[in-house]
Design a protein that fits this description.
168 residues; mainly alpha; two-stranded antiparallel sheet; globular
Length: 168
Amino acid sequence: MTMLYKRLITGALLGLFAIGITLFAPIWLFIAVVGIILLRILIFEWPILLKASNPAFWLIMPFYPVLPLLLIIALQSTGYELANMLIFVLVGAHDTGSYIIGKMWGAHKMSPFISPGKTWEGFLGGIALACFFSLVFFGHMSGTQILLIAFPLTVIVCCGALVGDLLE
């Protein structure tokens, strides 16, 4: 159980950092942090997945991870800081809920060859936790708006996070 607490604390601290830099930092600092993250990914992570001599490296790289990070910067620099924060919170909540529920009750493997630890129970637990945070974020909306807008948006973000995990 110690590893679970360590991961929860690390995730909470990183989450607070992401929210803080999204809502309170000047745009240049946000761009610098995202740029450092992108460089780290391109220098240390991508060479593990693909060799630079492989043409697929150069074909895929502009679309993932470069394009998503540029879109995050575009959202931030055009006044959509809350949208960025919502994405960070929902993806973080989904990952956390998936991990906790998957570790505790996960029995049905989702894709054992690609990601052996992912379970359907974890995925649903992640959606449940993300929906809770979505309810907090969209609490000012009517019940109908939450059911028709907020929860479907949350499920779409969670599915996108899962697809990103599996593709990675």
